[in-house]
Design a protein that fits this description.
The complex is a heterodimer of chains A (about 150) and B (about 140). By secondary structure, chain A is α+β, with helices and mostly antiparallel strands. Chain A has 3 helices and 10 strands, in the order αβββββαβββββα. The N and C termini of chain B lie far apart (about 50 Å). Chain B is mostly helical and about 140 residues long.
């Protein structure tokens, strides 16, 4: 795969064109990676709005009808419902792992299970998120495993 | 929380009713003593309530997994006392029989726990393998670039 960057003042917006022989699995993966970077949501901290791209987000959590986005250092309030975020971040590594959480699979360090079957995802920042068994199959598929 | 508990309770009640009726019939045939149906129903409700509570504690997402597993077993034990209260000496001729039953339930519980934990561990290692593969794939792609 060749990557060429054309830099010129007349380009006001970044445009990515994929030239390929056929739209195979590899091309689809590239497309998904770009989609991952292209989507964003607005988060608020103390009234100030910030644009959040998925690569910065660790997870979204719904607490008392409010949705929060957690990054490495900050917590942003989001004016969207979890199901709306699910739709926005479809075909990206952000997926539902329990009733209240959408997790970025790229921020997972490892998975652990306990004696009573509780499954947890340990994140890169050391946080542990409980993963419901209901969503294990979806996570497997997104990680490249068969159903 | 309450809704989930009662959901579990109804399922447990459904599955406990038949064994209780069968034990009632067995007691009637062995000791010629007919345990009142109301008595069996009330006892089954209590047993189902206890088992449902044990299941909810066991599956709780709060607290340590092994603590929840131990608590689950401890909570189940009173259900056996309810069973003794329902059928009395017709089912348990000696007091020691109840303790033997508690030990048997403990062994079954332990085996079930071991089997389930093995299944969960294999599931987790599968997820970790996929995670590692994905990371390696992405690293290779970056190197190729």
């Amino acid at each position: 795969m060749k990557i060429r960057v054309n830099e010129a003042p007349e380009y006001k917006e970044i445009e990515v064109v994929i030239n390929c022989e056929s739209k195979n699995e590899h091309v689809l993966e590239i497309e998904q990676s770009l989609t991952y970077l292209n989507k964003s949501v607005t988060g608020k901290i103390e009234g100030r709005s910030y644009s959040l791209t998925p690569n910065k987000i660790y997870y979204f959590e719904s607490i008392d009808d409010k949705v929060f986005a957690y990054t490495k250092d900050n917590v942003y309030e989001i004016n969207l419902k979890l199901y709306q975020l699910e739709e926005i971040f479809m075909n990206t590594p952000l997926t539902r792992i329990n009733k209240n959480t959408i997790l970025n699979l790229r921020k997972i360090k490892t998975f652990v299970s306990s004696l009573n079957g509780k499954m947890e995802a340990v994140l890169l920042n050391g946080e542990k998120m409980i993963m419901s068994r209901k969503y294990v199959a979806t996570v497997k598929t997104l990680l490249g495993g068969a159903l | 929380m309450i809704k989930r508990y009662f959901n579990t309770f109804f399922k447990v009640f459904f599955f406990t009713t038949l064994p209780m009726i069968l034990i009632g019939i067995a007691v009637y045939r062995r000791a010629d003593y007919r345990v009142p149906y109301v008595w069996i129903t009330i006892g089954t409700i209590f047993i189902a309530l206890i088992i449902a509570l044990a299941i909810r504690v066991f599956r709780s997402e709060k607290g340590k997994g092994y603590v929840n597993a131990i608590l689950g077993y401890i909570i189940i034990i009173p259900a056996l006392f309810v069973l003794r209260f329902m059928f009395g000496s017709y089912l348990f001729r000696r007091a020691s029989e109840l303790y033997i039953l508690i030990a048997i339930v403990g062994v079954i519980y332990g085996i079930a726990l071991l089997v389930a934990s093995r299944k969960y561990k294999s599931e987790v290692s599968e997820l970790n393998r996929l995670l590692l593969n994905k990371e390696v794939r992405e690293e290779n792609e970056e190197k190729n670039e």
